[in-house]
Amino acid sequence: MVHRKFQRMTPQRKIILEELRQLRFHPTADEIYDRVRLRLPRISLGTVYRNLESLAAQGAIRKLDMAGSQRRFDVNTELHHHIRCLRCGALEDVSVGLPSSWEDMLVDTHGYDIQGVHLEIWGFCPKCLEDRDRVNCQENTDHNETCTH
Amino acid sequence: MVHRKFQRMTPQRKIILEELRQLRFHPTADEIYDRVRLRLPRISLGTVYRNLESLAAQGAIRKLDMAGSQRRFDVNTELHHHIRCLRCGALEDVSVGLPSSWEDMLVDTHGYDIQGVHLEIWGFCPKCLEDRDRVNCQENTDHNETCTH
DNA sequence: TTAATTATTAGTAAGCGTTATCGATAAAAT
DNA sequence: ATTTTATCGATAACGCTTACTAATAATTAA
Predict the structure, then answer these.
(1) A96, B119: Cβ pair inside 8 Å?
(2) d(CA B80, CA B117)
(3) Which of B98, B112, B124 lies closest to A124 in CB terms?
(4) Is the CB of A54 under 7 A from strand C?
(5) Residue A56 phi, psi (nearest 5)
(6) Mean pLDDT score across all residues of chain A
(7) Which residues of B touch A2 (CB under 8 A)?
């Protein structure tokens, strides 16, 4: 008996969805805002947030709450995980699912009724590994923070 | 050649660490603040944050950036994962580590040099599963949000 | 021991990402 | 045609965290 509110496909909502579909890397709200503003210069950031929220509620997109950082939005609504490059910030989908036997073990051990799994992996992407070998950043104390761009 | 700054064990830092060790469930900064204030009524929230930060830098505690929620702090500095109850908000350590074969597969598939893995699981804890059977909340649209306390 | 340096403090302001409020507007329902 | 409702842009408020400030106490250097 869930009452699903009627949603209008306004020009704003349509363009937000279009731009989100074109951005390969799961963008943040303000990245989407910047893109959308090129086509709708008078749109407000609140409208972007409001529409991303309702699109997520409707199941058209997926809201990603990443650990310790800005929220991101994903057109891929399938359940999947993410891997992030600590150097360039790239956020990729992870193609390999968790083994179901592992989840079963969790249920047995903790007795939880599992509703969702959120997995984030951090590392250095192949491209940045190359760069790291070429350009030596190691005299800096923290590669992660000094080399991010 | 990492220069580690000298750290003083001030009364504030000492008490923050003591209280954190006594709180079983990974507390947030303001939960720690409330506890510490009972012993140091004039301490400021900024001091709590500052000390939690430096204790984490020094490796005495672990900073947990949970998806979409407040930061939490953990005295368990071993690498481990977490499971959270959607109803009562309990946050438990997960005893079962990820299979190493799975991580190997990730490296092969994506070519990343993996630095860290962050796994969060959501579900209903055994205690809340019981309560859910006793007290019927199902006429509400969203159990997760209405029943949290 | 005395003087200079440094880490730390409490208090407060600022920052940042997100959400809520508001009157106005336009689409949908009656 | 009239009412109802969703949505809008603009802006204020919110919650959590960090940065700034002058004051203070611990450490180091002279």
Answers:
(1) no
(2) 9
(3) B112
(4) no
(5) -70, -40
(6) 83
(7) 141
What average pLDDT does range B17-37 have in this prediction? 94
Q: Where do the domains of chain B lie, and which CATH numbers do they carry?
A: 1-77 (1.10.10.10), 79-149 (3.30.1490.190)
- The pLDDT of residue B76 is above 60: yes
pLDDT at A61: 95
User: Would you say the pTM of this structure is higher than 0.85?
Assistant: no
Residue A17 in tokens: 């969805």
A-B contacts (CB, under 8 Å): 121
Give every strand in the sheet of A91-94, ordered side by side. Answer: A91-94, A81-85, A113-124, B113-124, B81-85, B91-94
In this complex, which residue's CA is closest to the C1' atom of nucleotide D8?
A47
Q: Quick check: A124 and B113 in contact, CB under 8 A?
A: yes
What is the Cα B105 distance to its own chain's centre? Answer: 28
Q: Do A111 and B126 touch (CB under 8 A)?
A: yes
A133 band by pLDDT with thresholds 50, 70 and 90: low
Residue B40, CB, less than 7 Å from strand C?
Answer: yes
Q: Which amino acid is residue A79, in one-letter code?
A: L
pLDDT tens for residues B87-106? 887 888 987 778 888 878 88
Give residue for tokens 């731009």: A19
Mean pLDDT in residue range A70-85:
91
Q: Which of residues 86-125 of A touch strand C (CB under 7 A)?
A: none
Nearest nucleotide to B72 (CA to C1') is D16
